[in-house]
Design brief:
single chain, 294 residues, alpha/beta, Rossmann fold, 6-phosphogluconate dehydrogenase C-terminal fold, four-stranded parallel sheet, three-stranded mixed sheet, 11 helices, 51% helix
Length: 294
């Protein structure tokens, strides 16, 4: 049975891992409308067209006027403003909605607050919590969103029916959805996503600075596993660090406090205190994961 996406046209701006995975998911979902794609790299547009993911093989093959469309900005956070500006300059949209896939929502909200009210009111922020240390269209997958959470961050000018349409869109791609205010989203993901990337990059830097080409020689796989996300897209993570600076630095401070606490225990050399510390953390983690699996 065909899924109801509520849109006749979909334009994906940014054909990297997330944008490409949206396209592949639409293809496997048998979306009945027309799909277009835009990217600053014209070769990616051609590649997406060759894979039958989009209808256009260059930027000039997209109609200047689109109705009943969903426009998805799947670009790095600091590219959202120029991308929106360029798209709105080139195209006219009627009875359409807009969304994004950025990892920091308050900065996107700041951008759309300065847009034409009709566009702002029709722009529903979203963040699919899915990704990979690999990047680009070649790494995209039609199963990337399966069973993954997409956070929707409505603002006070969004209509209830429009929010539902965006939730329905992500659910049709395999996601579950949850609503969060933009600022709450940024504070939460600074701790659960952005901080782990900070730690992974810093750990890889510390180990490689010391051991160079022998960094993984005696790791037994644990170092590779832990630093996997240090192979993530540097431009995307540069944008996230800048856009969510205050929340990330607060999370780094809390992590530093925990690291200092453990350093003191190691220096004291008290086995009972170390076992108590490790056991408490293990118990908390195991309990949380047990709840998640139910």
């Amino acid at each position: 049975m065909n899924k109801n996406f509520y849109f006749q046209n979909i334009l994906v701006v940014g054909l990297g891992l997330i944008g490409g995975s949206v396209l592949r998911s639409l293809q496997s979902s048998k979306f009945q409308g027309v799909v277009y794609g835009l990217d600053s790299n014209v070769d990616l547009i051609s590649s997406a067209h060759n894979f039958d993911l989009i209808n256009n093989n260059d930027t000039n093959k997209i109609p200047a006027n689109l109705e009943d469309a969903l426009i998805i900005f799947a670009v790095p956070t600091l590219s959202i403003k120029p991308s929106i500006t360029e798209v709105l300059k080139k195209f006219k949209f009627k009875d359409s909605l807009y969304t994004d896939t950025c990892s920091v929502k308050s900065s996107v909200l700041e951008v759309i607050n300065n847009l034409n009210p009709d566009i702002k009111n029709s722009f529903i922020l979203s963040h699919p919590i899915a990704g990979s240390e690999k990047s680009g269209l070649s790494a995209s997958s039609d199963t990337l969103f399966d069973g993954r959470l997409t956070v929707i961050c409505p603002h006070d000018k969004n209509k209830a029916e429009d929010i539902k349409k965006i939730e329905n869109f992500w659910e049709n791609l395999g996601s579950t959805t949850k609503r969060l205010p933009a600022l709450s989203h940024d504070d939460l993901f600074a701790k659960t996503s952005h901080l782990p990337h900070v730690i992974s990059y810093a750990l890889m830097d510390a180990v490689f600075t010391d051991l160079k080409e022998d960094s993984f020689l005696h790791s037994g796989g644990s170092l590779e596993d832990y630093t996997r996300i240090a192979s993530s897209d540097p431009v995307m993570w540069k944008d996230i660090m800048i856009s969510n600076e205050s929340s990330i630095l607060e999370a780094v401070g809390a992590f530093r406090d925990s690291l200092d606490k453990l350093s003191i225990l190691i220096k004291e050399g008290n086995p009972d205190k170390l076992v108590t510390f490790f056991s408490s953390i293990k118990k908390s983690r195991d309990m949380l994961l047990s709840k998640e699996s139910k």
